[in-house]
Write a structure and sequence with these properties.
The complex is a heterotrimer of chains A (568), B (142) and C (263).
Chain A (H helix, E strand, L loop, with lengths): L11 E6 L3 H4 L4 H9 L4 E7 L5 H13 L4 E6 L2 H14 L7 E5 L1 H5 L6 H20 L8 E3 L3 E5 L3 H11 L4 E5 L14 E2 L4 E2 H14 L3 E4 L2 E9 L2 E8 L2 E7 L1 E4 L3 E3 L14 E3 H9 L8 E5 L16 H15 L4 E6 L7 H12 L3 E4 L7 E4 L3 E7 L4 E5 L3 E4 L3 E3 L3 H8 L26 E3 L9 H21 L1 E3 L5 E3 L9 H5 L5 E6 L2 E6 L10 H4 L5 E3 L4 H13 L3
Chain B lengths: L8 E6 L3 H10 L8 E6 L7 H9 L4 E6 L10 H19 L6 E5 L5 H18 L12
Parallel strand pairs in B: 1-2, 1-3, 3-4
Chain C lengths: L1 H13 L5 E8 L2 E7 L8 E2 L7 H6 L7 E5 L1 H12 L8 E5 L4 H7 L21 H8 L2 H12 L7 H5 L27 H9 L9 H5 L6 H16 L28
Parallel strand pairs in C: 1-4, 4-5
Antiparallel strand pairs in C: 1-2, 1-3
Classes of the chains: A alpha/beta (568), B alpha/beta (142), C alpha/beta (263).
C-alpha cells in the first residue's frame, strides 16, 4: 500500500460519468469533461457511460498508469455509496486510496435540476472545479492500527458482571472481576425470590458464582476497587486495590457493571419515624427473618419518590417487586390483608401479566391514586395511610400494620468518580450514559468501555442478563480482532504552532486528544487510533495549529474560492 | 440589473445527516433551484465561522450551515458547538451591518429529503430578495 | 494610591513571598514595564499611564518563583482568560488589584473598571461605550456604511493584535495567505478584522489596547464589546469573570442557549 504523498506536483485525472441517462440526460457530460481539461493540475480528463462498471474502473486504472496520475477525481453519483469502489480501484493501480475526490453531479445535480439542463451543466462544472482544487491539496493517508491486550476488566460482581465475565472468558480471554463487597451477587443478594420464574435469588447467584470460580480465565477480586485505569482501548493500565495492597494489570476492554441500589426515602412518607414503615428490600429481609408472621394487614405504596416526586423516571421493576412480595405474603398467610396503592401498574409481557392476574385473584387489593396528590403516611401510634381513591372518587384511609414503600433504584455511590476515571459520561439521573440510545446502547462514546445492567438504569434481571451478554459481545470485537483500526481523515496538531491551550482536549467527544509536554512546552497530541475524524477540534483551536486531514482549511477554502470566482 | 440576479449560495453539509438528506432529495427527484454549491464535511462541528464570513466577503451571497438535529449528531456533540458559534456569528454580522439572514443554520436528518429541498428553495428565494452581498474589498463583485 | 501599592509591593518582596513584582516604572521621564526585584527600586513604581502587563506574565511562564503583579480590572480579566488557555498559572501570582478612576473609566469606555480582588482603591461604576450606544441605534445599512469606512483605513500594521493581551498564538491566522491575501491595502474586508474579533468573542476583556495601538483609530473594541454583551445574553457568560470554560467549548447540556433561536 502506497503511504507517501507524491512529492511531484499534482497530476489530476478527472472522470465524468454519464450514469446512462441519469446524469447524461440532463448534464452535458462531454462539455464538463472538456471544461475539466482546462483546470490547473488536470493532465487527463474523460467521460464514461458507467464509471462504476468494469470498463469504467479499468479506464481509471489504465489512466493512472498511462498518464502517471497522482490524484483522481470522479464526478458521478454520491460518495456515500460509491466512494469505496473507486478508492479500491485506484489502490489497485498503485495510488493511495485517499488521493481521491468524489464530486456529486447526480443526486445533488442532474436529478434535482432536471428542467434546467444548462444551469445543471454549469453547476456540474463548478462542482468539478471545486473537487479538482481540493484534490490538488490531498495527501496520502493511512488508518492507524493499535494492538489490543487480550484481557478484560469487569467492574462489579453482580449478576450482570458475572454474566459478562463468563461471556468473555468463554472465548478464551482473561477476565478480572472487581467487586467492592465481600461477596459476589450484587443487588439480588438482598432478595428472596425472582419472579416470574419463582426461583430463589440465591440459586441464581450460586449458579453463576460456581461457573465464575470454576473458570480458569476469570480472576475474582472481592473487597476490592479499581483505584485507577489509565490509557485507551486495547491498552489500559489498571490498578486494583484490596485493603492496602495494589495489583497492576494490562487490560484491553472494560465493562461497567456496577449496578444500582434502592433509594431510601428519608423524610418522605414518614419513613424513618416508625419501624413499621419499610422499603421493599427491607420487607424481604424481614420476611426472611420471620418478623412479618404476626402482621394482619399491609399497605404498599408505589412510585415513592419516582415519576416526578423526587426523581423524574419510573424505576421499571417496583411493580413486579411489590406484587411478588404481596403474593409471597398472601401465599404464606392467606388471611393477611394486602393493598397496593398504585398509579400505573407496569407488568410487561405475558408471564408478568399472569402474575398480576394471579395477585388480583388471590384477593390482593389494587387502589389507584393520582400522581399529583400522593398518599400520606402518618405514624400516630398506629399507622394511617390517607389517599385519594380514584376508583371511589373520594378520599380514603387505611390503617395497616405495616406500610411498604416501593422506592426506585438509584445510581450507586462512586459512579461519579468512576465516570471521571474512565472518561465516560453520566446521564441526567446519574446513571451511566450510553453512546446512542438506539444504535449503540451497550457502548460508551469512549472506545473500549462497555455498559450493562442496572448501572445503566433500572431494569429487571432478564434485561440485565441480556445486556451483560450483549456487552460481552461488544467487548469481544476488539478483543477477538486483536487490534483496532482508526479513521484515516484524522485531526492533527502542528507541534510548532500549538500553544497548548487545551481547547481541543475539551471539545473532543471521544477524549482522543492529550495535552503533553514536548521539548519543554505543552502541546496537543491527537491519538489517531481514537480520533473519529469529526473535525470539531479544528474551530476550537485559536491558532490554526489543528487541522483535519482531507478536510483542511486550505482545501475547504479553495473550494469556497472556486465558488467565489465563478462567473455569474 | 437586479431582475436577473442569480445569487451564489454555498451550503456546508455534514456527511451523516444533511448531505444524506440532500442525496435523498435527489433520489426522490425533488427539484430545487440550481444556485447552491455543496461543500461536504464529516461533521457540522468542523465548519469554521471564519470560513463562513470569508465566503460572504468574497462574492457569495448566502451561506447555509446544515447539520444533524441536536441530540442526533453522529459525533455526539459536534453540532452543539456549531449551534453556538453560528449564533454568535449571526450577531456579529448584524453588528457589522451585514444582513444576518444571509447565514442560515438548520438541522436536516438523512431522512428529510423534502426538508432539504424546501430549505434550499426558500433560502435561495430569500437571498434573491436581499440582493447581492457586495462582499469583497477589491471589486470582485459590486 | 501609588504609595499604598509601593508599600504592599515592598512588603511582599521583603517578606520573600515573591521573587519580583511586575509593574510600571518611571525612569528618565519615561514609563515602561519593569520587573522590580529589589524593594529599594520601588520608589520609581508608578500606576499610569495604563498598560497591560498580562502578556509579560506569559513570557515569564513557566518559572520557579512566585511573581507579584499590579493589575487593573482588565488585566485581571486577561490573566483569567490566559489561565483558561493554560498560558499563565494564577496560583503562582500574587495579585495587587487596583481600581481605575472615573476619568480613566470614561477614557476607556470601560464597563468594569475594577478587578474582582481589589487590593488598593475605591470601586467606581463603569460606563457604557458611547460608540456602542450609537451603533445599536443605527440601521443595518448605516452600520454597514460605518464599518466599511472604518475598516478601509486599515494599514495592516497588526498593532491591534500585537497589543492585545490575549493574543499569544505562535502563528497568527491574520498573517496567513489562505485567509487574508497578501499585497492589498486595506486587507480583505471584513475578513482580516473578523478573524481577531471572532477569536476574541469569548475572551475580550475590554482593555482597549487595540484601539490605543491603532494608528488610524479603528474602534475595534466597540465591536468586541457588542459581542461580549451577546455572550452574556445568549449563554450567561462573562469573559474574564466566569471561571468556567467558554460556551464555544461546551455541549448544550453543559451550557445551553438562553434565547430560543433554532428548533
Amino acid at each position: 500500500m502506497s503511504e507517501e504523498t507524491p512529492k511531484s506536483p499534482p497530476r489530476i485525472g478527472v472522470f465524468v460519468c454519464h450514469c446512462g441517462k441519469n446524469i447524461g440526460g440532463v448534464v452535458d457530460v462531454p462539455s464538463v469533461a472538456k471544461f475539466a481539461e482546462g483546470l490547473p493540475n488536470v493532465v487527463f480528463s474523460t467521460d464514461n457511460l458507467y464509471t462504476c462498471a468494469e470498463d469504467g474502473l479499468t479506464c481509471i486504472k489504465d489512466a493512472v498508469v498511462k498518464h502517471n496520475l497522482n490524484r483522481v477525481v470522479v464526478a458521478s453519483c454520491t460518495p456515500r455509496t460509491h466512494a469505496p469502489l473507486f478508492m479500491s480501484a485506484i489502490e489497485e493501480a498503485g495510488l493511495n486510496q485517499y488521493l481521491f475526490e468524489f464530486v456529486n453531479i447526480r443526486d445533488q445535480c442532474s436529478w434535482v435540476h432536471m428542467k434546467e439542463p444548462e444551469k445543471a451543466t454549469k453547476k456540474a462544472m463548478i462542482l468539478v472545479e471545486m473537487g479538482v482544487r481540493k484534490a490538488s491539496l490531498l495527501e496520502a493517508l493511512e488508518e492507524k492500527e493499535i494492538a489490543v491486550e487480550p484481557s478484560a476488566l469487569v467492574i462489579g460482581g453482580g449478576v450482570a458482571g458475572m454474566v459478562a465475565a463468563l461471556g468473555i472468558a468463554d472465548h478464551g480471554f482473561q477476565v478480572h472481576i472487581v467487586e467492592r463487597e465481600e461477596r459476589l451477587g450484587g443487588l439480588i443478594g438482598n432478595i428472596e425470590k425472582v419472579y416470574p420464574v419463582k426461583r430463589a435469588a440465591s440459586s441464581v447467584i450460586s449458579d453463576l458464582e460456581r461457573a465464575v470460580r470454576a473458570s480458569p480465565m476469570i480472576e475474582v477480586h472481592t473487597s476490592s476497587t479499581v483505584k485507577d485505569a489509565k490509557g485507551y482501548v486495547g491498552n489500559y493500565d489498571v490498578e486494583i486495590q484490596n485493603g492496602g495492597a495494589s495489583t497492576f494489570h494490562r487490560i484491553g476492554a472494560i465493562i461497567v457493571a456496577t449496578g444500582a441500589t434502592e433509594f431510601k426515602p428519608e423524610g418522605m412518607y414518614s419513613y424513618g419515624e416508625d419501624g413499621r414503615i419499610l422499603t421493599q428490600l427491607e420487607l424481604e429481609r424481614q420476611m426472611r427473618e420471620g418478623k412479618v408472621d404476626g402482621v394482619k394487614s399491609v399497605a404498599m405504596i408505589q412510585c415513592v419518590a419516582a415519576r416526578g416526586e423526587k426523581f423524574t423516571y419510573c424505576s421499571k421493576m417496583c411493580c413486579s417487586v411489590a406484587i411478588k412480595n404481596a403474593i409471597e405474603l398472601k401465599t404464606k398467610q392467606p388471611a393477611i390483608d394486602v393493598s397496593i396503592l398504585y398509579n400505573d401498574i407496569q407488568m410487561p409481557g405475558e408471564a408478568l401479566e399472569k402474575v398480576y392476574t394471579d395477585a388480583r385473584e388471590m384477593g390482593i387489593k389494587f387502589l389507584r391514586f393520582p400522581l399529583k396528590a400522593r398518599p400520606q403516611v402518618v405514624a400516630d401510634g398506629g399507622l394511617a395511610v390517607r389517599f385519594f381513591n380514584e376508583s371511589l372518587g373520594a378520599d380514603d384511609e387505611l390503617r395497616p400494620d405495616l406500610v411498604v414503600l416501593s422506592a426506585p433504584l438509584v445510581p450507586r455511590e462512586g459512579a461519579k468518580e468512576l465516570s471521571r476515571m474512565l472518561k465516560v459520561p453520566l446521564g441526567q439521573d446519574g446513571f451511566f450514559f450510553e453512546a446512542h440510545v438506539k444504535l449503540r446502547p451497550l457502548d460508551f462514546a469512549t472506545d473500549g468501555v462497555y455498559l450493562c445492567g442496572t448501572a445503566h438504569g433500572p431494569k429487571g434481571l432478564q434485561e440485565s442478563i441480556s445486556q451483560a451478554m450483549g456487552a460481552a459481545s461488544r467487548a469481544l470485537i476488539p478483543l477477538s480482532n486483536g487490534k483496532v483500526r482508526g479513521e484515516a481523515a484524522v485531526a492533527f496538531a502542528d507541534e510548532a504552532t500549538c500553544i497548548g491551550c487545551g481547547n481541543c482536549v475539551k471539545v473532543c467527544p471521544y477524549v482522543a486528544i492529550d495535552r503533553v509536554e514536548r521539548n519543554g512546552r505543552f502541546v496537543a497530541v491527537v491519538n489517531s487510533a481514537l480520533c473519529k475524524a469529526c473535525g470539531t477540534c479544528v474551530p476550537a483551536c485559536p491558532s490554526g495549529a489543528m487541522t483535519q486531514k482531507s478536510f483542511t482549511d486550505s482545501q475547504l477554502l479553495e473550494m469556497v474560492d472556486a465558488v467565489s470566482q465563478e462567473e455569474a | 440589473m437586479a431582475d436577473q440576479f442569480e445569487p451564489k449560495i454555498l451550503a456546508f453539509c455534514c456527511n451523516w445527516c444533511s448531505y444524506a438528506g440532500a442525496d435523498l432529495a435527489g433520489v426522490s427527484r425533488m427539484q430545487y433551484p440550481p444556485n447552491v454549491r455543496v461543500v461536504r464535511v464529516m461533521c457540522s462541528g468542523r465548519i469554521r465561522p471564519e470560513a463562513v464570513f470569508k465566503a460572504l466577503s468574497n462574492g457569495i451571497d448566502g451561506v447555509l450551515v446544515l447539520g444533524c438535529h441536536i441530540g442526533d449528531c453522529h459525533y455526539l456533540t459536534g453540532n452543539h458547538r456549531t449551534a453556538k458559534r453560528m449564533l454568535v456569528l449571526e450577531k456579529l454580522l448584524d453588528h457589522l451591518g451585514v444582513d444576518p439572514r444571509r447565514l442560515k443554520v438548520d438541522w436536516i436528518s438523512a431522512s428529510e429529503g423534502e426538508k432539504f429541498s424546501r430549505t434550499i428553495t426558500t433560502f435561495t428565494e430569500q437571498i434573491k430578495k436581499l440582493g447581492p452581498a457586495n462582499g469583497g474589498a477589491h471589486g470582485r463583485r459590486g | 494610591m501609588e504609595e499604598e501599592v509601593r508599600r504592599i509591593a515592598s512588603d511582599i518582596l521583603r517578606g520573600g513571598k515573591v521573587a519580583g513584582v511586575l509593574g510600571l516604572r518611571r525612569e528618565h521621564g519615561q514609563v515602561g514595564p519593569h520587573l522590580f526585584t529589589k524593594a529599594d527600586e520601588l520608589g520609581s513604581l508608578v500606576l499610569s499611564p495604563k498598560h497591560s502587563l498580562a502578556k509579560t506574565v506569559v513570557m515569564l511562564t513557566p518559572r520557579k518563583k512566585r511573581l507579584g503583579i499590579v493589575v487593573r480590572g482588565c488585566d485581571e480579566r486577561a490573566l483569567i482568560e490566559l489561565s483558561k488557555l493554560n498560558q499563565v498559572t494564577l496560583n503562582d501570582l500574587e495579585i495587587i488589584g487596583i481600581t481605575c478612576s472615573r476619568e480613566q473609566a470614561e477614557e476607556c469606555g470601560c464597563a468594569v473598571p475594577y478587578p474582582s480582588r481589589i487590593t488598593v482603591g475605591e470601586k467606581v461604576e463603569g460606563v457604557e461605550d458611547p460608540l456602542k450606544v450609537k451603533l445599536l441605534a443605527m440601521t443595518l445599512d448605516e452600520r454597514n456604511g460605518f464599518w466599511r469606512e472604518q475598516l478601509a483605513k486599515c494599514q495592516k500594521c497588526y498593532g491591534c493584535r500585537n497589543a492585545c493581551p490575549i493574543c499569544v498564538c505562535r502563528t497568527c491566522e491574520m498573517e496567513q495567505m489562505m485567509w487574508v491575501p497578501k499585497g492589498a491595502l486595506p486587507p480583505e474586508m471584513p475578513t482580516f478584522h473578523l478573524i481577531k474579533v471572532f477569536h476574541l468573542a469569548d475572551k475580550c476583556t475590554g482593555c482597549g489596547e487595540c484601539v490605543a495601538a491603532c494608528p488610524v483609530d479603528i474602534p475595534l473594541k466597540t465591536l468586541q464589546l457588542m459581542l461580549l454583551d451577546d455572550m452574556a445574553a445568549l449563554f450567561d457568560y462573562d469573559a474574564g469573570i466566569d471561571e468556567g470554560p467558554s460556551p464555544f467549548l461546551t455541549s448544550l447540556e453543559e451550557c445551553p442557549i438562553k434565547e430560543a433561536q433554532h428548533d
